[in-house]
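Justification of resources, computational component.

The compute hours requested in this renewal are based largely on the per-chain cost of generating structure records like the one below. Each record pairs the submitted sequence with a full structure-token output. That output is archived, and it is also reused by downstream analysis tasks.
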Amino acid sequence: MKSVVVLATSIAFYTALLIPFTRHLQEKPFLEKVGYVPQPFIIKAMVGDQKNSVAAGLMFRVLVYFGTLVEKNKINSVSLPDDSAMRATLVTASRLDPYNMDTYYFAQSLIWDGKKVRETTELLEYGMRFRDWDFYLPFFAGFNSAFFLKDYAAAATHYATAARLSGSDLFSRLASRYMHEADQTQVAIDYLAAMIKSSRNEAIKKSFEVRHAALLETRRIELARDRFRVMFGHLPASIDELYKQGLLTGPVTDPYGGKFYLEPDGAVRSTSKFAAKPEKTD
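The structure output for this chain reads:
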């Protein structure tokens, strides 16, 4: 009898919170509808043994939100109106159901703005404690550690784990490569190719494909730049010099709509910074 009373009280409490929360979301603009999610321990107390279902519902909300943004902007904007709430929702979902692969895979798709990379990597490391057979989580964490955080020792450790779980020599080679700062663009290209192949969500896949195309163009310029340096003993002053020497053929196109250029140190950059322009709202 006591358990029935506790359950009834929990349901009533949950309903009292849910109704105004739902009304609040309905009145908000769509692009801000991720909304506030209570702390995991509060949700756990309210939903009992339905934690997995609630976690799946939270993930569905985030995926719908993200998918609509991609559709509206045509390509993925790295500036999301409800970015903080979305990331917080992912953390909550992982605490309710640490085995749900979508939580970690989707969190990893949000790291390209260079923000919250450390937090995302910590989320992946949390997932590794539960999904201890999944080589993609250390694969993602290794990439974040080297490409963004420049922590090559951590990257090598994560890739060694990925190699052990997958039995693939590719990850062993990546573990060695990540110990150095060379070939970062090619590393990102290889990473994105794997992400595109494994992605199950079309919106996420599309955002990866656009960035993959941008990095392929970047790498094409880098290779021409390196050949120029070997031939003349110095860096080219501009991309135009690469064309004049016949080292670069055909137009280089940034799918984000920017224009490629060379920094004084030879680094290849684009005026777009590989970010879609956010949609204008009235």
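Residues 24-32 have pLDDT under 50 and may be disordered. The longest strand covers residues 260-262.
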